[in-house]
């Protein structure tokens, strides 16, 4: 039976209580898998010159009361973020009551047999499908942002999910690769969209105006985009999307329209996020903040350490410049990076040869 958490994590007395809680939970999960404990997991990959080497993950099985109803999750695959993706997948399976119901849809910009093999050997029983995202879709449409990683075509793949996924997928959870799930993903899957195209945590206390340039706000025609709405910031790294409504409403084209405006007149600085805000802000289903404890990667310039916000946590998100695997490897981790480390299946080449 898969490990199940009846409640997501609480942070009543700060970060240290969360660290302790997660460590206790991780110790408990040893009895819920059919494979060996983490420190005895075997390597099934040959050393790669280009990709990290990973241990084989434990096998997780459905609980007794599970149905066959699938939970669809979409993520991108990039060699630079593969270590994060592997940790994210493990965390989702480990905390799911029905892990065999989770189906992953991975999007990549070009075929990479090594990545495919890596997924199969790290998660032999994972249900997944790979899709090629045609970078030509965004050729000439991407404007330079404040961080190079935000300019990559694959960062815009989320705009085209409705064009890529099979017609029988009516709902999908889109997740960035730098997340860790610490709650049952089915709870997020069952969010009532109340007729909206997408659901995500909203942050209405954030300074919404800073996501757009002054040229945007002083242009009455552009600023009129939010007329009749009370726009709030939301992070596009965690979204529940009604695929049919997106497709029927032509929302990929609506996002593209704002990308075209950006090419003519610089109205924002942050990659794929602002056009999403222009189309959806103030018109989404807001959900509990526990589903996106974002910003753990710090700011987009220096990636300085940040602390967790107080309150319950179901998903940790290292959005921002700093990524936990890079900071841990540099031996200059932030405190929150130790919450990501237990899900890291990475094994260095040195360790692989020793084993």
TrEMBL record:
Alphabetical list of InterPro entries matching this protein: Glyco_trans_8, Glycosyltrans_8_dom-fam, Nucleotide-diphossugar_trans
Its main localization is: membrane
Q: What is its EC number?
A: 2.4.1.-
Keyword RNA-binding included in the entry's annotation: no
Q: Which SUPFAM superfamilies match?
A: Nucleotide-diphospho-sugar transferases
An annotated GO cellular component of this protein is: Golgi apparatus
Q: Which domain of life is it from?
A: Eukaryota
Which pathway is recorded for this entry?
Glycan metabolism; pectin biosynthesis
| Protein name listed in UniProt | Hexosyltransferase
Q: Which species is the source of this protein?
A: Mikania micrantha (bitter vine)
